[in-house]
Amino acid sequence: MDLSKVFAEHDETLLYIFYTMTNEEIQYRSAQELGRRGWLYNDLDQTWSVTRKGGSKSKSKKPKQPYAMGNKGEENTELSRYKFDIEQWRVVEFSLSEYKQQENQPQKRFDDLNSLPTE
Questions:
Q1: Which residues of 51-83 are buried (b: 16+ CB within 10 A; e: fewer)?
Q2: Which pTM does this prediction carry?
Q3: Interior CA angle at 39 toward 81 and 89, to 5°?
Q4: How many domains does the chain have?
Q5: Which pLDDT score is estimated for 20?
Q6: Where is there biased composition of kind Basic residues (predicted)?
Q7: Average pLDDT rounded to a whole number, residues 75-86
Q8: Distance from the Cα of residue 56 to its chain's centroid
Q9: Cβ contacts of residue 32 below 8 Å, gap of 6+?
Q10: Which domain holds residue 8?
């Protein structure tokens, strides 16, 4: 199955595939692509999050390069933390306090996981 056109789409499209097409190969492959784009999967609350330059939560097909946590990036660049909120079904920005709470929870790139999350 050629998924190159699907993977060229917005992060939100990949998140939709991940949450709606459970236990299918496309779910796993969309998770791998999200991981390649810098998204991290949280095992405890089964959500995805990403750190990016402030204001980069754009709808562009080519997402801006993610930054590693703790990396200040370019001079005078603010880093923002975003997560996909399942209840609101959209990408939302974390508050600093919420980010600190999430910091101690297990987050990893999905391609490092051995199995898909179970419901």
A1: bbbeebbeeeeebeebbeeeeeeeeeeebbbbb
A2: 0.63
A3: 75
A4: 1
A5: 94
A6: 54-64
A7: 79
A8: 13
A9: 110, 111
A10: 4-112
